[in-house]
Each structure stands twice: as structure tokens, then as C-alpha cells.
Amino acid sequence: MSRLYNIAVVGASGAVGEEIFRVLEEQKFPVGDVLPLASARSAGGKIEFNGKEYVIEELTESVFEGRDIDIAFFSAGGSISAKYAKYAVEAGAVVIDNTSHFRMEPDVPLVVPEVNPQDIASWRETGIISNPNCSTIQMVLALKPLYDLYGGIKRVDVATYQAVSGAGKSGMEELVQQMHDFFAFKLDQSEHKAFMHQIALNVIPQIDKPMPNGYTKEEMKMTNETAKIMGANIPVSATCVRVPVLRSHSEAVTVTFNDDVVVDVDKVRLALNDFENVEVMDNLEEGVYPMPIVATDTDITFVGRIRKDIFQDNILHMWVVADQVRVGAATNAVRIAQKWIELEDV
Ligand code: A2P
């Protein structure tokens, strides 16, 4: 590997876009030119990358022309990817898309590099590789070693505790503003735009829009995307909940294995710890378990509260926490790019 890669980031002023630059820098990604893109609102602003300043440009249909971009990260929402990803592809870039727009298209690979790196190989069919939903990424990172350990998974039930940063910068600002308003005794006058209800001192059992089957779109993303990434039809039933945490998602995951499996918690711990970028943090006696404040700003998916079901030998419960801006978005996108480079190099 010797050459440098020209990078565009669409949504460069957003929570995930900013984090992509941070991760590229930390990982010493072989970056050549940098093209930060956002809406007209942020155009002219600056970002700093590897000690150099770059001016944010407005995303337009022609902005990729003649720029020789190798990799375009898209993180500005599904409608923006729907409209503009094709222009980046036409200009010769591979698009790594953080939105849900292309994820379930059969010819677009949906990749968590530790779980299904082989799927990247089909990127040429559309020029697009999709980054899965944040809650899905951290869950499959914990499921894959267990799937391999016990030769399959019969079903998964999960309840998520999702941070406000999942809704971007405006989600974080809304929580902070409402807490200010609470201490100023005016929470009742506080606005909410990012979320349907007040998020400060509350939990909201709805993320994304309702679906006809009584689930939400976020919940169905976890169901559908898990099957595609794992390459297996594992039934997943999710309840996705927004909680007043700034950053990092937590998940209570119940895994049912095939009927003949007797869960061995020690073996489960070993399998999880041996898996790339997964770490067990589990000592209830000492109050040791993953929490959002532990996972934030790391690239690790932490697993704790690992226990066998009280009633059934083939059921395991665990608590999975990861920084969803990094593991669930920016870091996964950069890891996809790294694997893509390996493929292109051979
Ligand atoms: P802008 O800052 O110009 O609005 P977040 O998820 O943190 O809310 O960030 C969303 C990102 O998507 C921001 O960088 C935002 O840019 C960008 N974005 C939103 N709408 C557009 C658009 N129409 N064209 C290009 N970028 C957009």
C-alpha cells in the first residue's frame, strides 16, 4: 500500500462528519486531498485536518467533477444520499454511505468489517457500500462471536437505550438546552424539535417513524439489517428507546440459541473477548459493567452483565454499550474504507 486517497465528506459540519475526520487522522489513513462538503449554510466555514485548514464547500451535483475523489463518505441524511451519491460514483469515487437509504438494496453491500468484510467485494455493482444503523452495528459485533461459538442463533430480543447524539448535533443541543431550562424553572416552555417529546428527565419509546406492523422504522432496521449482515435469517425483535444520554448507545440483548445448547458463561466471555474490537467488562460484585461514560470516545464495543437465563439453559442475557458516533458510524465507515483499500490493492 503506497498511494494516498482523496477523500470527500458530505455532512462535514455534522456530528458524524466531524468524527470521520478525527478517526481518519487517528488511524493515520493515507489521505491525499480533502473535500469537506455541507449545505450552503456551512459553506465557507473551515475544518482542520492533519494540521491543515480546509474550506467547506456547498454540495452540488457538479462538485465532484474533476476532483479525482477516491472515497466519498456521506453523512448528511438519507434524502441527500438519495440525490447526490450517484454524482460521486459517476465521478469515480466509492461512496461509503452512513444513511439508511441504500442499506437494504440487494446489490449494495452492508458491512461491519469485523463481521462480513467479504461483502465489500461486490462494491463495484453500484459503487456504494452502506454503513449499517448504529444500534445494529454494536449488536452484531456482540452476536457474531456467539453465533460462531454455538453454531447459530435461534432468536434475539433487544431493548435499546439510545443517546441523543443519534439525532445529530441538534439532538445534543436540545437535551442541553432543556436541562438549562429545567434549572431556570422554565422547562415547561422549552422547545422540542429534534424529538417528538421533551427528552430531558424523560425516556421516549419511539425512534423514527411508525411502521404498519406496530414497530418503528429504527426497530425494523435492526431486524432487517442484522439478517443481511449476518447472512442468516435470525429473528430479531427490538424496542428502541431514546434516553437523555449525550453519547453512546446501550442495549439489553437476550439471545436464544438452538434448543440443545447449554450456555456456558465462561466460554461466552472468552469468545467475546477474542473477537476484534469487542471487550468484556463484567464484574457485578465490584460494580464493573459498561456504561455510556465508559464507551464514549472509544472504538470498542463493551459487553457486560453476561448471564445465563434463570429458567432456560439455551438463553443468554447481556448488556452491550458502544459510542454510536464512532463504532456505530464514523469508525465503522473508516474501517470499511481500510478494507476497501486492501481489496483494491490486490
Ligand atoms: P449544514 O451544517 O450545512 O446544515 P447532524 O447529523 O449533526 O445534524 O449533521 C448533518 C450534516 O448534514 C451537516 O453537516 C449538514 O450541513 C449536512 N446537511 C444537511 N442538509 C444538507 C444539504 N441539503 N446539503 C448538504 N449537506 C447537508
Structural descriptors:
346 residues; alpha/beta; 8 helices; binds adenosine-2'-5'-diphosphate; 14 strands
Explained architecture:
The strands form 3 sheets. Strands 5-2-1-6-7-8 form a 6-stranded parallel beta sheet, sandwiched between helices. The termini are close together. Strand 6, helix 2 and strand 7 form a beta-alpha-beta unit. Helices cover about 30% and strands about 20% of the residues. The chain has about 350 residues and is of the alpha/beta class. The longest helix is centred in the last third of the chain and has 20 residues, at about 325-345. The chain is built from 8 helices and 14 strands. Bound molecules: adenosine-2'-5'-diphosphate (A2P). Adenosine-2'-5'-diphosphate binds near residues 42 and 76.
Order of helices and strands: EHEEEEEHEEHEHHEEHEHEEH
Q: What small molecules does the structure contain? A: adenosine-2'-5'-diphosphate
Helix/strand/pairing category: alpha/beta
Q: Quick one: overall form?
A: globular
What would the average pLDDT be, to the nearest integer? 97
Low-confidence region ranges: none
User: What is the helix fraction of residues, given as a range?
Assistant: 25-40%
